[in-house]
Design brief:
alpha+beta; 12 strands; Dna Ligase, domain 1; 22% strand; DNA polymerase, domain 1; 36% helix; Alpha-Beta Plaits
């Protein structure tokens, strides 16, 4: 007797709207309706999150504070309160567990949920998402956007479609067409450097990506080709699961021109360290070891590290350590095409087929 094909899963991706900024505006009524940025506004400060009022001026996460001020002269910088954000994140996560135990947090403000079999026994994943969003609003005073689909890839893309306070549902028969219209730079798993390489090959959208066969993608993108090939067809069989504790948090940047001058190298290292600290704070991934990565013009890679007796909890110490590790390598034997900085040995609570008809 033939077994029936497995039923598609029902996946929700929940993403809190401008999370840090929204918490600040909720807790301080004088900030409501104003362009605010959570983070540092000084020369080396970085925007962790911008309110939607600030985003209309082009202010974005990970942007240097000085540039954000130029774009939005009336921008209000608010120092982060990560304990407050973690408390709200815990509230939101408790709401998720009322509906399913299959929850995969990505950070303080977003998570995947598998609601194929959910605790209330609600047949429609769309209804589950609506209920979760309603309860989040009632119990925290904040809004969340949700993507509902049959896999993680499309659910995450969908949650960004109707922000803020939006819901987007992509059913199995709609997945390929949804991806086809998507710019490749927005497809989760295709980073900025890869997106530029694709654009140089004439691949601008999911439809362009789907038009390339697997052999072409393997020739240009190696081991990642199969993921891109399947993503272009709306396919993703990764399960939702409780994430294993991360072993590291890192940030690295590839440069258009190889860097050789000390002043420019130190400037880039400071920027990378500030961006890394934002990610460390967001994930709660405090670690004891700082690791420097340098990729040279000939693609040779070196790493250097320094360990501490306990986890680093200072942005200044992280930046100082990055500069120290970098300066120890100067002058470089040749130009650097990539710099990276990571925090390892983490402590704390860091978290990061055939399509059938499905009643989402």
């Amino acid at each position: 007797m033939e077994s029936s094909p497995p039923q598609p899963r029902k996946i929700i991706h929940i993403d809190m709207d401008a999370f840090y900024a929204s918490v600040e505006q909720r807790d301080d009524p004088t900030l409501r309706g104003k362009p605010i940025a959570v983070g540092g506004g000084g020369p080396r400060g970085v925007v962790a999150t911008a309110s939607y009022e600030a985003r209309t001026f082009g202010v974005r996460s990970a942007m240097p504070g000085a540039r954000a001020r130029r774009l939005c002269p009336g921008l209000i910088f608010v120092p982060p309160r990560f304990e407050a954000y973690r408390a709200v994140s815990g509230q939101v996560r408790d709401i998720f567990f009322r509906f399913t135990d299959v929850v995969q947090p990505l950070s303080l403000d977003e998570a995947y949920l598998d609601v194929t079999a959910n605790k209330p026994g609600i047949a429609s994943a769309t209804r589950v998402a609506e209920e979760i969003r309603r309860i989040i609003r009632e119990e925290t005073g904040l809004t969340a956007s949700a993507g509902v689909s049959y896999n993680k890839l499309i659910a995450k893309l969908a949650s960004d479609q109707n922000k803020p306070d939006g819901l987007c549902v992509v059913r199995p028969q709609e997945g390929a067409a949804f991806i086809a219209k998507m710019p490749v730079r927005r497809i989760h798993g295709i980073g900025p450097v890869t997106a530029r390489r694709m654009q140089a090959l004439g691949i601008e959208t999911g439809a362009d990506l789907r038009a390339r066969d697997l052999a072409f993608l393997q020739a240009h993108f190696g081991s990642a080709a199969l993921f891109y090939y399947r993503a272009a067809r709306g396919q993703d069989d990764r399960p939702v699961h409780e994430r294993q504790g991360r072993k590291s948090v890192s940030v690295e940047d590839t440069f258009f021109d190889d860097l050789t001058e000390e002043a420019r190298l130190i400037e880039e290292m400071d920027r990378i360290a500030a961006n890394l600290w934002s990610r460390v704070e967001k994930s709660g991934g405090y670690g004891r070891t700082v690791v420097l990565k340098i990729k040279f013009a000939d693609f040779r890679i070196i790493t250097r590290s320094r360990s501490f007796p306990s986890a680093l909890r200072s942005a200044d110490l992280l930046a100082e350590t990055g500069r120290m590790l970098l300066r120890a390598q100067l002058p470089l034997r040749m130009g650097a095409r990539l710099l990276g900085l990571g925090v390892h040995n983490l402590e704390g609570d860091a978290e990061e087929g055939d399509q059938l008809a499905l009643a989402l």
